[in-house]
Predict the structure.
Amino acid sequence: MKKNFLLTLCLTYGLSSIAQVVTTYAGKENSDGFNYYESASSKNLDDTYFSFPTGICFDPTGKMYISERNKVRIIANGQLHIRVGSLQKPALSEGYKNATGTGSNFRNPHGMVCTANGDLYVCDTENHAIRKVAKFVNLGNGQVVSTFAGAAPNANQTGTVGTSNGTGTAARFNNPTDITKDASGAFYVTDRDNYTIRKISSAGVVSTLAGKAGTRGTSDGSGASANFGSPYGVAIYNSNTIVVTDPWNGNIRKINMFSGATTTLAGSTTGNTLQIVDGTLTEARFRSPKGIAVIAGIIYVADQNVIRAIDEANNTVTTFAGNTANFSIVNGSGSSASFTEIADLTSDSQGNLYATENSSIVNSHVIRKITVNQLTPVARFQASKQDVRIKETVVLEDISSGQTPTSRTWTISPNTYTITKGDIT
């Protein structure tokens, strides 16, 4: 008799078993982003300079966008290509102009997000606007840049600071630094120097979700009762909640997408202590939290020269990668790796993290990749035999990949079988 068994292997794991390897993904390190810059496309990842790379995200096809001083590049066919913004050196390239491709101008763009159809939305920070870049089609097709929200360019090719809610170009911002998008198509923006979190509908209607324009503080609360110091990074946490970094307060805030109810998730509730301390959510301290990303319920925060991991379910904040004592570009695992000044974080569909670095003090201006050893174990096994006879011993070997599981559950279900002789009992 021959039986064919269906074997199910269930694995559970803990955060402590995550392994991470840090490598330089793109860019040649330098300490002068104003004079080391790139004006050409079709550059290999290891043969290009970045000028203060800041924002980073992926489009739906897996292509990476990187914002840097006054332009945005994409990685396509394994090379970097300038898609929008001026080709001139940083000191001469800033401006505010809507046009196609490199005919457009930006002024220090920061955080970005892509929609499901591939359109890119960019926080054009010093133009106080959210710019829309039409989706990438191919390298021969230019991408059209327009103003999605915030004041349109004035006669001097600059933006306009303000606090107003409204639709499209009737709204006003003050140095917006990051943007994310929920499943319904609504956008969330950290309006840094207004000390507010703004919400933008897919139709471009801008409202203030949390915080009070012009009022800086530490208070939790709902809507305008909450106060921020300098909200910087933002990410979707779950279907109801966004998380925001606040370097002025040295903490991470959690905000309901619908009510604006704001609480301190981790870090100080009384102001920044300029420390990096691991521990429980309330014990932990952050020095300069900026970029933020969420993978499988774990919140990763760029905290100056290290990456922190917040596990709310287990009430822990740990240092995930990097060494607080080292401000340099060193590849390696965990604390043997080091970073300079991390600006932004994003993740790919494989659960890996990518970080932009842009220190002006030491060699920096590169993109780093943090390869996570499978945030969840991949359950896999192999059997010594597939054709099993009655009372025959079969050895099942666990060849699962990813984190080392903390427990295993094996389930054998003989729901498919072939009887060649006899009966199954």
User: Anything to note?
Assistant: Residues 90-93 form the longest helix (4 residues). The chain has one helix and 32 strands. Helices lie at 90-93. Residues 82 and 293 are 25 Å apart (CA to CA).
